Amino acid sequence: MHVKPVTLTPAGRASRLPLTTLVLMLAILALAGCGQDAAGPSLARLLADPAVPAPAVSSLVTALAGQQVTASPVAEGADLTLGLSPSPDSRLAYERILVPVDRFASLMTGTTMEELRGVWTGQVASSNFHTIYAGQNAMADLQALLGPPSAAVKPQLDAAQVADRLWEDHLGIGILPFDELLPRVRALPLDGLSALDNQLDQSKWPLAGRAWLSSQSAQGTAALQRLPGKPLLTNRNPSKLTVLIMTGTTAITRGTGVAIEKSGDPAFPARVIGPVLAAADITTVSNEIPFMDGCVPDNSAGLMSFCAKPEWWATLALSGVKLVDLTGNHLIDFGTEPFTRTLNFYAEKGIKTYGGGINDEAARAPLIVEDHGNRLAFLGANQFGPDYDWAKADYPGSAQYDRDQMIAAIQAVKPKVNLVFTDLQWTEENGNGDYTVEPIPGQAEDFEALSDAGADVVTGVQAHAPQAAELRGNRLILYGLGNLYFDQTWSWETRTGIVVRHTIYEGRLLNTELLVTVIDPDMQLRWATPEERVKVLSSVFKASGW
Predict the structure, then answer these.
(1) What confidence score (pLDDT) does residue 431 get?
(2) Residues 117, 250: one domain?
């Protein structure tokens, strides 16, 4: 460290200064030195390109301070420069992922940068949307990316206002920072990429404000060496992101079991959709039946006692299943012993369960799972029965639904976690014995009560055809998801199902996607065609009152 010598008196003694003044001088000299040791703070003069949005510069200066780098903006003689383009030795310092969105009930499949820029600048019209509602916190970055906005751009104060406008204007879309997404909107794919994808290469996301730091001096190089290898400031940190997939009715039995045996492939039903399910960080199924040695594949008409061969677990393994909901009403079809063995079977495979168990206490206990720093609670119960399927003090099975008890359980676990997911096995049919897209009498009352008690998502896992959805603020109710791995190919409605993909970030539910599946006559599942997707989701949204 180069320190200016203290002036000496003729007698060779240092001039006397107050102790507080000496301490202050030493602190200033230490900060101003050009060769500070690694543990001390570093000073750097920062020159920002005028094209870098002012909020980005301000945020970055604050973030640098957190890395013990005091960055002082200057007009010349910089140690560090901040620009919108990288150079060979620069470091990505600032990144703001921005996401096009529409209302949750949108049927749009996505948009492109060309379409966005055309409407933003007013140079090109789009048949998909006429207006862009942009969150105020995104405006500076968007103007740097897309240029001056046209009259088609309507800045909004916050994400909630953007959501309000999108539900009112069906020819509008929004743009929000990734970390400001909320369940009332749906993130749209952009140029074929999804900001919700946990495998996304963020460097390829086109709608992002980015700025790079470059060194112009030894002091600047020393400052850069203090920074982490990842972006210093980002609103999408993959280490804080969890993708959770939840699914509908699974019973790998009857016709599905016969189809597996015919194919010679124990994972046959999942060959097409399984890899997408497995890409999630957590994938759940509501498996309603036991795995049982000696189970015989049988697709006899009217057969209602269900079991699965243990080797058919391969279907769920290919789907990446980590959690199993045990609220089903066929768990004890062959008695308690096969179900007890199934519990051990899951434990041996490291699969966690909820909504059922070895006794009533275990069945009602919340399952708490932590992933990427997000703490999630899962609860489940069976309202439908039959009586022999419900767990008791010394009897295994599913948790019997009791509204007051479940409300208490939700309220007890909520302070311990970030989000609560609650599954219900409710009555499947209306009074005429039909499956309906609308909730049947009493169903909405129970589901809404659990939502109002604090459940962030309430999911019906009983339905054999997709049912309506409901938004209560930023809490979501999905009344029924339809079939996943099951053999009901006798109607279009029962052939279809919804795979729910939740995106969770920093403890918040950011977004939910509804992916549509179809069971082919050979019992293998596939993704719906675009036309089929619109048909299924239009039915769900209409029943939802949207």
Answers:
(1) 85
(2) no
pLDDT above 90: residue 15 = no
pTM here is: 0.91
Question: Rounded distance, CA 442 to CA 207, Å?
Answer: 45
Q: In this structure, how many other beta carbons lie within 10 angstroms of the beta carbon of residue 65? A: 12
pLDDT of residue 117: 98
The verdict on 360 and 347 lying in the same domain is yes
Task: Report whether 483 contacts 464 (CB < 8 A).
Answer: yes
In a domain, 18, yes or no: no
346 in any annotated domain:
yes
Please name the helix (run of DSSP H) or strand (run of DSSP E) that holds residue 132, with its range, or none. strand 131-135
Q: What six digits make up the tokens of 526?
A: 């596939």
Residue 365 in contact with residue 409, Cβ under 8 Å? no
Using alpha carbons only, how large is the chain's radius of gyration in Å? 29
**Predicted pLDDT of residue 7:** 28
Report the distance separating Cα 325 and Cα 454, nearest Å. 20
Residue 17, pLDDT score: 37
Query: What CATH number does residue 71 fall under?
Result: 3.40.190
Residue type at position 258: V
Domains of the chain: total: 3
If asked whether residues 221 and 265 sit together in one domain, one would say no
Same domain assignment for residues 172 and 293: no
pLDDT of residue 5: 31
Phi first, then psi, for residue 93 (nearest 5°) are -110, -35
Q: For residue 25, is pLDDT > 80?
A: no
Q: Of 359, 367, 543, whose CA–CA distance to 463 is shortest?
A: 543
- Asked if residue 3 is part of any domain, the answer here is no
- Asked whether residue 334 falls in the same domain as residue 443, the answer is yes
Give φ, ψ of 287 to 5 degrees.
Answer: -90, 115
Q: For residues 68 and 147, state if they share a domain.
A: no
Residue type, 174: G
Q: Which helix (H) or strand (E) holds 476?
A: strand 475-478
Domain of residue 197: give its range: 97-206
On average, the pLDDT of the chain sits at 92
Q: Any idea what the CATH number is for the domain that residue 127 is in?
A: 3.40.190.10
Instruction: For 364-391, write each residue's pLDDT tens digit.
Output: 999 999 999 999 999 999 999 999 999 9
* CATH number of the domain encompassing residue 284: 3.60.21.10
Q: Are residues 179 and 303 in the same domain?
A: no
pLDDT over threshold 60, residue 502: yes
Alpha-carbon distance 404 to 17, whole Å? 74
Q: Could you tell me the pLDDT band of residue 301, with boundaries at 50, 70 and 90? A: confident
Kind and range of the H or E element at 160? helix 159-168
The pLDDT, as a whole number, for residue 47 is: 97
